[in-house]
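U., I forgot to send this yesterday:
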Amino acid sequence: MAIWSSFKGLINKAKTAYSYAKMMNGYTPVFSQFGDNIYASDIVQNCIDVIASECSKLQPKHIRTDGEGMQTTPSSSLNRLFKFSPNPIMTTRDFLEKTIWLLFLNYNAFIYPMFEIRRDGYGKETRICTGLYPLNPRQVDFLQDENSILFVKLYFANGESFTLPYTDVIHLRKKFSVNDIMGGGLNGQPDNAALLKVLQINDVVMQGLEKGIKTSLSIRGVIKLNTMLDDESTKAERDRIEARLASGDSALLPLDLKNEYIPINSDPKIIDKVTLEFLESKVENWFGVSKAIRSGDYTDEQYQAFYEKTLEPIVISLGQAFSKTIFTPRELDMGNEIVFYQKDMRYLSTKAMLDLLKTAGEQGLLTDNQKLALLGYPPIEGGDKRTMSLNYIDVNLANAYQMGRAKAGEKGESSNE
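Result:
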């Protein structure tokens, strides 16, 4: 793939001496990415899929905020990439979904922004972003050179490895706690010990259900032969009974005086619904996804809680990590940043949507096209104008108006006298 040749061109050709980065906890910063031991569970995959699918609706934008607080969307290479395709093999939705899956699989996600340096006629250099690539390394080493500059060495499944300045790589972390650099546990991997216990119990329960069903459909009774028969005679008698059972002509099995049917009352104990729901809820709580969200049958309030608890921290992390890596300190000072807008995460019911349109529309906060977009309709020509209700008035004007009315009333009373 083209990305590999691009990476190879980035490797420093000089003989740079690297050493492992010094960690405050004294550990060697070598981390392998093997966080896939819980993902055989259908509940786990379903929870992550819900989160990744919702995050794939985000709309990343490069914006610029001036000193007056006014925001503009520049016509930049980043916005062109974000609109449809951050790299040649992924749409924006694919890119976001893959990034979130990698984050939950490894509790760390690495994204490489590729830049091209262009010079104008005066020799001024400009960095043009040409692609953003989510990476899935098998192992990650953190190194430093003789100047104590931090580098990250990425090892991939095809045997390739690349050493890049850490500041050039977008690094997203989940449950960033005891490790100095990586998300997850002390060893930089997902710390799923507590969740594994629940999944193991759930697996035992599911196996018990399977065995209980098989037991209930297996042996239902015993035929006792009340006579002395040799082996050949016993076999012939058994074949005769089995032939009767296999024919299925009747639910009744005729027996003579020398045979006796002894029924076996099988009563397998099946796990109750409450226990199964309790185990599922433990997994759902781990990922911050409720049963209503998993099934898609949620209310406005339930989705709002899901967004604030689970999605919003991811949205904030994405914006900060992308902005910190993509822009230089000077560009950040000039108000450049990456914002992940969530306007397509529509969770409002039709009634709530109409109430929002009524309130925001009467205040003149939305253009006609923005109102149409909320309802899922395409924009119309001339729909960028804002309209508002005349039933609202500026507070200061209202006070002046009322004072004017009061003075007019006083004059009217004095003239009547």
